[in-house]
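INTERNAL TRANSFER SHEET
From: sequence group
To: structure group
Subject: Bile acid:sodium symporter family protein

Please process the attached sequence and return the structure record in the designated field. Keep the field labels unchanged so the import script can parse them.
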Amino acid sequence: MQGDIVSGLLLPLILAFIMYALGLGLTHLDFRRILQQPRALVVGVLSQFVLLPLLCVGLIQLFGLTGTFAVGFMILAACPTGTTSNLLTYMARGDVALALSFTAVASVLTIVTLPLVVVWAMNHYTGAAATVQVPVGAMMGQVFVVVGLPVLLGMLTRHLKPALALRFEPVATKLATVLFILVVAAAVAKNWALLVENFSTLAVFAVALNLAAMVGGFVMAWLTRLSRRQAVTVAIETGVQNATLALLIASSVLGNDALGVPGAVYGVLMYLGGLVFAVTMRRVLAAPAVAGG
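Return from structure group:
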């Protein structure tokens, strides 16, 4: 009963609050910037929704993962960028405006793309019979309720009460970070035996996926002639995922907490990789990036 309350009520509420905090930092201008720099946004979308899942499939094949863990990492790879990606972009002196625009767009696109990836992963890694059990419509609805709607409400708050939103946003962001840590800690505690037994494989895979995502995003942006600041942004947006949403899909929608273990592991390690990447980009590329735009 306690587990049902956590997965069925507390986890969706926590994720909704995290996304609401994100919405407080967004305005309609962030969407207008899409028209001003469409190439950068398209590259970011392709990197997030095409490159990242393909990298995950390739690494799953390389590592020989199957079943639960393979599906769990694919769920993670299908989630939108994490809320702290904007902070890491700022630390790395990337294009924060692009990061905000991309985060907003990714949160909307995920409502459609995530269920499709989950259905494919369940079918491919666990057998066709599992596909029937994936409630695609319910998943789309739940992702909208806990991801899309809170972002819209946060933006509405910012529009109607800008002074209040600006004061509350830093507090909400810090609280959202604490709540995320609690969610990951709860997932780890609930699946401790499974995690300990497979931690070496999961941790190595998570680090490999995180690094591959950031390097792949950076290279993709560089090949398409984006500025260095934009390339740094695309890299971070590709590598930092919404692990809380991955846990929600695993426990609340699919009813299998074990599917959330990969997301919990990645949710911790991606911040270490993201921080190292941000600091490296800040130190190595800061001066040229400012000079070159």
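Handover comment: The first helix runs from residue 2 to 24. The two ends are 54 Å apart (CA to CA).
Transfer complete.
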